[in-house]
Amino acid sequence: MRDVRWVFDKIDQQKTWRSKCINLIASENTTSSWVEKAYLTDFMHRYAEGTPFNRYYQGTEIIDEIEDKANKFFARRLGVNRVDVRPVSGAIANMAVMRALTNPGDVIAGLSVSAGAHSSHTKGGVAGLLGLNQVQLAFNNNDFSINTELSSKIIRHAKPKLAIIGASLILFPLDIAGIKEACDDTKCTLIYDAAHVFGMIFSRKFQQPFKEGAEILTTSTHKSFPGPQGGLIAAQIDEDSEWSTVQRGVFPKILSNHHLHRIPAVLVTAYEMVKFGDAYSEQILKNAKALAEALHEEGLNVCAEDRGFTESHQVVIDVKDLGGGKLMAEALEKANIILNKNLLPWDKLSLVNLNNPSGLRLGVPEMTRFGMKQEEMGRIAELIARVTIKKETPAKVKSDVEAFRKDFQKVHYTWDTEWVE
Ligand SMILES: Cc1ncc(COP(=O)(O)O)c(C=O)c1O
Predict the structure, then answer these.
(1) Which residue from 83, 96, 206, 233 lies 20 to 30 Å from 199 (Cα-Cα)?
(2) What is each CA distance from 279 to 47, 76, 143, 171, 283, in whole angstroms?
(3) Is 231 in the pocket of ligand 1 (CB under 6 A)?
(4) What residues have CB less than 8 Å from 39, skipping those under 6 apart?
(5) Which domains does the chain have, with CATH numbers?
(6) Is the CB of 152 under 6 A from ligand 1?
(7) What is the pLDDT of residues 121-144, one digit of tens each?
């Protein structure tokens, strides 16, 4: 029993610790009690290979109804005719689409990791695993934008099977329309990876990839969209046979079981976001801007000043002169301020830089969900500056972080009523 108790103690420790932290990992969030309730259910024990109403197992009648409803609900909301909620994560959604649309040896186009691409878009990640070669699109490092003219030339020259844009480091909408013509002319499928910004896309507070020319969207369901960890694929595809090629990328090519308990939970999150997502996403955008401005006032080197720092949920700071991302992220962690070190567009991709890149990436979705507004962003900037610029001992700052976080424990932007059994 002692071993078991140890595990439960660790679970409690984690919960207590993170409730005392300022959590600024841009890819994290916290689900509401409604979503949590929808997640831990009998569906976590079940299998349902195949698509709704067309399964290889018995016992799937009820998940068929829920999954079908989820697919249709997301499709309607995104204004497209196809959705598949089976991918168990964003990287798996990318893998399924790439596996469906390419063969080993094919070329795909995407951003570099330093410019913000997720590893799954690259030779070092899923794309490489599938035997694909990535050509890199051109990026304007100074203003964090795609160089559309040069990127279009690269697409016309390399004729990739697909181009995947969207990023892990994303401060501004990306110019989908700008590379669309080159993609159309070369029959290159244009994919937008919305993993980070899906909450704001769902709430129509960020760029609308399908209106701008994307054919397929892949995403996680747990970052700015505050659902259970998972993924989905959405697409505007008229031919049933083309869509079934994409769906066969999910199963049988990549997945067997698709972790059914995510599906009711992601549908509850979608309903929650229809009701509360406007206010939530708007506050995320205001908070990110406020945090960037406050960090700048504190004397930190916040990136993209000329463009107003950010139009997303993220803020990026260059801390090379302060010792680099590793040193700063670790010092902040000791003060209970949790964020991640990050390559910046001008960092060369090398082991040294991966270990200690120039940047820090900060995201506001989780602290916004706990009720923080612009004023609190100013307070967070102050606490960050005390560790990074003023070099106060993290332990001293930590007690102030804990006192500050005490007042922000309730998940907002969800139904107020407690769950009734
Ligand atoms: C742009 C992008 N795509 C895909 C992923 C992978 O998502 P997941 O962690 O859900 O597999 C990430 C992860 O952060 C990401 O930033």
Answers:
(1) 96
(2) 37, 21, 28, 20, 6
(3) yes
(4) 31, 228, 261, 262, 264, 265
(5) 33-268 (3.40.640.10), 276-405 (3.90.1150.10)
(6) no
(7) 999 999 999 999 999 999 999 999
